[in-house]
Amino acid sequence: MDEFLHQVLSGVASGGIYASVALALVMIFQATHHVNFAQGEMAMFSTFIALALIEAGVPYWGAFAITVLLSLILGAAIQRVLLTPMAGSPVLASVGVFIGLLLIFNSIAGWLFGYTLKPFPTPFEGPPVLGGFVTRHDLGSTAVTLAVLGGVYGFFRFTNLGLAMRAAAYNPVSSRLMGIRVGRMLALGWGLAAAIGAIAGMMVAPVVFLDPNMMSGVLLYAFAGALLGGISNPLGAVFGGFAIGVIENLAGAYLVGPELKLTLALAIIVAVLTVRPAGLFGRTVVSRV
Amino acid sequence: MLEMLLRPAPMLRVAGLHAGYGDVEVLHGLDFTVGWGGITALLGANGAGKTTTLRALCGMIRAAGRVQLEGADIAGLATEDIARRGVGHVPDGRGTLMELTVEENLRLGAYTRRRGEEAADLRRVFGYFPRLRQRLRQQAGTLSGGEQQMLAIGRALLLRPKLLLLDEPSFGLAPLVVREIFGIMRRISADDGVSILLVEQNAGLALELADTAFLLETGRIVTAGPAAELRENAAIRRSYLGY
Ligand SMILES: Nc1ncnc2c1ncn2[C@@H]1O[C@H](COP(=O)(O)OP(=O)(O)O)[C@@H](O)[C@H]1O
Ligand SMILES: [Mg+2]
To answer: Distance, CA A86 to ligand 2 centroid (Å)?
Structure first.
């Protein structure tokens, strides 16, 4: 029983990482109707920036804040420079850009920082807590991801800027007629997604170690979570991310062993999508004509 | 000369407006003006180019020609900048954000306003359309057609426009609802001093409401004048009013 609880709680911790990246994917998807395959590599690159800052002597939380800010700027710049000229181009061209971004970030990171696994510090050190079931890092990183998710939710739900960003994603034409600068909103959305990804990267790196391929597995689980919860529904995607984390951990411990846990997670998703193609919480807009 | 300088520019002056989609030109050089205050109707059959005209005015499609708002050139500006200069546009299909609540739609309408400024305007919108106040928390997509039109007009009013462009507000609505909305348009134009450019296929209705009217046929203005005169025009009666 204790072991079971331990598996669930550490599933929640990795689920928070998947949920954050799933949210970043959904934000971009809602605005562009494309999946940003480079989201994970952007997060990995941000994490390397954080490591470089920490190695240069910047205290952890200072490096954290600077990394989040730089990621926001970098994400917005990518949207402005690379994606804006692509608006209205064929789907395959956009997919090409995303794949290209993925490869660019991966190889620049390898070139700048090398391909060896690097340890990454956690700000949450100390002996396990809650009766020894949960590492301090798992608890701390869960708190951080929950704070991020809550903050993002509040931003989109309660602020006019967040509302305008949602409007720009749903209906750019109408938004322009209301004076909303849609281009800026999209850039800001990319920036926010990159910042969320950066935090997820910094939270997962102490567990899996940092290398240019650190996020490829995370991206897959996050994508699975987004599809499971519904890629059109941010809350659903967040739930899906947590669910995948827990399923993955329990399956790895009790059902199929660590080698097959990814396969099992994906099988569950395929099963869900067969029954509900929009995902568990996929949005269906009520509309009357 | 002096008289020309002193004469104030009209709310909207359009000269030699050409626009279309891709290689197809739909508007072949429109010239018209919309005066200060009052209601100007832009009439024409389905496919005449009415919606295209409004899109061209707001920079939503590529266009050539002159467009001046109160004497200042706005042709070539981005759509959002034209909106910020005081052009409200209730587009073809109403442009409602169906996924959002009525309240969120209204908040978006006031997005460009400074905080606090919009409270009085919101009260005025609820004065025109009391039903919106009862539906604030409802998803906009669940409103009836008439309520959606009210929401669309209310949203555009919150921008506090000088010029309000309305694309077929009567479309798909029951006659009684249309009467209600047209009555309110009259009040809006009288109380708020907004100049309204009303696009309508329903010429009979529009000519009752409007002060001035233009008739568009396949991308050209063929008739223009005071609405009362157009109502008596034999050709218009035959083709558009059916009596
Ligand atoms: N998005 C579009 N793409 C291509 N052609 C269009 C588009 N919208 C309208 N048209 C064409 O432009 C012409 C004028 O259409 P429109 O301005 O919508 O007319 P109206 O509003 O007067 O009914 C029509 O021939 C129509 O087929
Ligand atoms: Mg039309």
So the answer is: 29
Q: Does any domain span residue A270?
A: yes
Q: How far is CA A54 from CA A43, A143, B128, B167, in A?
A: 17, 22, 60, 58
Q: What angle do CA A191, A195, A201 make, to 5 degrees?
A: 140
Give, rounded to a whole angstrom, the gap between the first and last alpha carbons of chain B.
45
* Integer Cα distance of A35 and A23 in angstroms: 11
Residues of A in contact with B78 (CB under 8 A): 176
User: Alpha helices, DSSP H only, in B21-115?
Assistant: 50-57, 79-84, 102-109
Identify the H or E element spanning B225: strand B220-226
Q: Is residue A289 a part of any domain in this protein?
A: no
Residue pLDDT, tens place only, B193-228: 899 999 998 888 899 999 999 999 999 999 999 998
Cβ–Cβ under 8 Å, residues A245 and A12: yes
* Calpha distance B207→B202 (Å, rounded): 9
Q: Is the CB of B51 under 6 A from ligand 1?
A: yes
Position B236 in a domain: yes
Cα gap A267→A195, rounded to integer Å: 30
Residue A135 to residue A132: CA distance in whole angstroms: 7
Domain of residue A189, CATH code: 1.10.3470
Domain ranges, residue A214: 2-115+122-275
Mutate to test the pocket of ligand 1, among B23, B27, B46, B51 (most ligand atoms within 8 A of CB): B51
Q: In this structure, is the dihedral angle defined by the CA atoms of residues A175, A180, A184 and A189, taken in order, positive or negative?
A: negative
**Total domains, chain B:** 1
Residue B139 lies in a domain: no
Contacts of residue B21 in chain A, CB cutoff 8 Å?
A: none
Residue-wise pLDDT for A149-187, tens only, equals: 999 999 999 999 999 999 999 899 999 999 999 999 999
Q: Which helix (H) or strand (E) holds B192?
A: helix B175-192
CA of A119 to the centre of ligand 1 (A): 61
Q: Total structural domains in chain A?
A: 1
Q: B82: domain CATH number?
A: 3.40.50.300
B98 chain-A contacts, CB cut-off 8 A: 285, 287
ipTM score of complex: 0.93
Expressed as residue numbers, the domain containing B48 is 11-94+157-241
Nearest CA among B165, B107, B187, B176 for reference residue B140: B107
* Two structure tokens written together for B221: 């203005």
Collapse the DSSP code of B66 into the 3-class scheme (helix H, G, I; strand E, B; otherwise coil) and give the result: strand
Please tell me the pTM assigned to this model.
Answer: 0.88
Answer yes or no: is A286 within a domain. Answer: no
To which H or E segment does residue A264 belong?
A: helix A257-275
In a domain, A288, yes or no: no
Pairing of strands B39-43, B87-90: unpaired
Candidates A89, A74, A90; CA nearest to A197 is A74
